[in-house]
Structures are given as C-alpha cells and as structure tokens.
TrEMBL record:
Its EC number is 2.7.1.-. It comes from Polyplosphaeria fusca. SUPFAM superfamilies: Actin-like ATPase domain (SSF53067). Residues 27-221 form the Hexokinase N-terminal domain. This is Phosphotransferase. The lineage of its organism: Eukaryota, Fungi, Dikarya, Ascomycota, Pezizomycotina.
Amino acid sequence: MVGLGPKKPPSRKGSMADVPQDLITQINRLEELFTVPAKKLKAISDHFVDELTKGLTVEGGSIPMNPTWCMAFPDGNETGTFLALDMGGTNLRVCEITLLEEKGEFDIIQSKYKMPEELKTGTSEELWGYIADCLQQFIEYHHQEEELDELPLGFTFSYPATQDYIDHGVLQRWTKGFDIEGVEGNDVVPPFEAALAERGVPIRLTALVNDTTGTLIASAYTDTEMKIGCIFGTGCNAAYMENVGSIPKLAHMNLDPELPMAINCEWGAFDNEHQILPRTTYDIIIDKESPRPGQQSFEKMIAGLYLGEIFRLVLVDLHESLECKIFEGQDLGKLKKPYSLDAGFLSAVEEDPFENLSETEDMFRNKLGIVCNKPELELIRRLAELIGTRAARLSACGVAAICKKKGWDKAHVGADGSVFNKYPHFKQRGAQALKEILDWPAHKGKGKNDPVEILPAEDGSGVGAALIAALTLKRVQQGQNAGIRNPDSMLKCSAAQKKAK
C-alpha cells in the first residue's frame, strides 16, 4: 500500500494485505490529512518566529509572550524552606521544599488533592476556598502543634495571566476545561489571599508562577545548558529567558536592557488567525464545540486534552460515511459521547505489541462495546499513529522557533507533561521534526545528543516554583524590587526560613 511502508513498525510489514480497498482509500485520505511534511514544518516555524516577536511588542499578537518577573537562573546556592502549590487541570499538589546548603540539593514532602470537576464551572469563592482548605490541611498535617510564621509560597498557576508583578496575575482566559465566571480579566491573587486569611493559614504568596517557567528554572538548577522549558500535557506551552532590551512592551519601565526576563509564551494560542496550521475538518469541529471557540488553536491540535477527541471524531465520521463503513450494525452510543476517549487510549493503541492487535480489540470491546474486525483494527492503529505523529511534529515547530529567534544552534529543552512523558514515540518523532526544520546532518535527529535536545524536565511545579520564590526573596533582600508588588511583606515572611543567599 502506497505511503505506509516506512511509517509502520517493521514487525507489522504486510499487515494491510487483507484490508478492503474502501478502507485503504480512507487510510490514504487520512494520511494526506494528518501528515505534515518538512516544507510545511519550516513554514510553520518561520511564522512562529514572527508571532513570538510580535507578542513581545506593544501591539502584541495571538501569542501573549507574558513577562513573568522571574529575572534570574538559580546558581545552586539558594537555601530555605518554601511551599509550592500546583493548580493543574486534574489535581492540586502541595509541596514543602527545603533547599539545602549542598549545591543543587533539596528535600521535598508533598500531598495531592483531587480537583473536583464541579469546581471548574462553579464560583470563584468555591475555587479559592477549596484551594485554601487543601493548604490548611497540608500545614496542619505536617506542622502539628507548631507555631509558624508566614511561609513563602510559589503558586504554579498554569493559565494565561498578565503579570505586572511577580506576586500578582490577571487571568487572560481560562484553559483546560475551566470556565468560572468573574475571574477572567481580574487579579487572581487578592481572592486567593482572602481565602487564606479567612482561615488563618500562615502563608505569604511570594511568586505566581506558570508551570513552564517553573520547568525552565527547575531544569536549569541541575543543567546549565537548559534554555527552554516546555509542557506537553493536557495543554501545551513554553518559557525561555529573554533579555529586557528585546521586549518593546516593557520599554516604558526604563529597565537595564541586558537584564534577563523569563517569558511565558502561552503558545497554545499560536495561529488563532488560522493562517498557517494545517487544520482538518475534525480540528475545526473541536474548536467550534469548545468552551472558547477561536482560541488556543495550536493547543487544540497537539495537547493531550484533544488527541483522543480527534481520534473519536474520525472514527464516528468513518462509521457514518457513505464511502466506507466501519463498525456496521453496532451500537456506537459510547463512542459518540464527546471526550469519552483520552490520550491514554491512543497511547495504548500505539503500544499494542501484538501482530493481531488483540489488546486494541479488547479495549474497544470492553470500553466501547464495539467488536472490531481485523481491517478495522488496522485502520484504528494507523489513525492513532497519524494523530500522535502530527502532534509531536507540530510541537517541534515551537521549540525550533524559539531557537531560531534567539540564534541558538545548541540548547537543552526541559519538557514535562503526560504526553511528553507517556505517549509512545513522542520524543523520537519530535527529534526527527527538529532535524527537518533545522537542517541537521543525516546522523542527527535521533533524540540523543542532538544539537537541540529535548530532555525530561525537573519538577517545575514543585521545585521550580520554590526556586522562583527563593530567587524573588533574594532580589528583595538585595533591594531589587522591579516587578514586585509587596516587597515589605515579603521581607517579613523571609523570617520563616533561612535567608536565601
């Protein structure tokens, strides 16, 4: 069959022999839809560079390029005890991190709390109250009977926010399924602090941190070649260190142009204008039916929240197609439920090691009540590969764009998130795409020791948030208060831990 040879695992060679022509025709059509060739990857990356630059200007663009007021990499000498709070789309994690005298060493204790689904569409008071309750439980459990001064907190708030100060953040828009009224356009810190004060929780918010910035800083703590932090998970994003002189929208502050400034790109919004990304009919449906149509266009093609839904939409479409019918005569009630399949389901399909795809067959029968024949299983497997490969290749466009913009021929990229860590072949496919975009020699693009190498990140939402809190206190103690709203209160709370050196 044309176009399938080298893309299939070697052990599956010839597996299309018994596939009917109508299914082969549909597989060919899907390959055309979801394959992104090198020429297109380069065009996307070049447009990406322009959009990154635009986001740093006064006019701005779809990519917000938010200054974070994290203005240094750690040097390994940071010390003290800090709390870190990570508000993710699924869980809430609270950590207590002690940065030790030994360079680059730390101790960590942590607890995880489930984020109730109803909170995502509830009220602001319910959200902040629940988070404050979790922090209170954590403090009471780990510090029973102790008299505590205020502990400094790095709050990983992984949603697009404008920050005029490191200890505040105005939510630009909800992502990851959140849709709470009255929060967008407002500073999230005062209601959070009010919920803490109402409960008498001894915590001082020191830094509001995006998970990508935390990933960048935590990874740089152990690797001096680290230049970009990325998240490829439920959502997608990146952060890197820019010089202030290259951020025209900060020119009015008259800062030293050589000062570093971590930029939270929020690149999930890349190409909201639909100028360059190769969107399919299925991508358009996902966008139209999402809580925020017209937003997060890049994210909706590559992030874990959407991969299973793209897969589901294609299968339902093929079932209802006149040219090709799959799952004939069967009840597709479960498959027709939006977001009933997640990226983990696709991962399992791609990882099925058996020639007859028996694990995939079992999953469809047990989870969806669908009995698949052999040709249908082959189509399912190929579709999963196409969607997963497209996500990895498009993800590489953003990494390549930052490297192009900064003129970096070599860089380490710290990546975190469920898709990066768990989705099969994601790293290798991304490395191959970087090779094609950046024109590496033939022997590169394997993922290991490449000029731009994407590596598993350190704990950005825990250790990274704590380090950024430590770096912020260090700046306050040195009298460098640019981008800090309440330096006096931060100095007071630093009595609760060893001074950052």
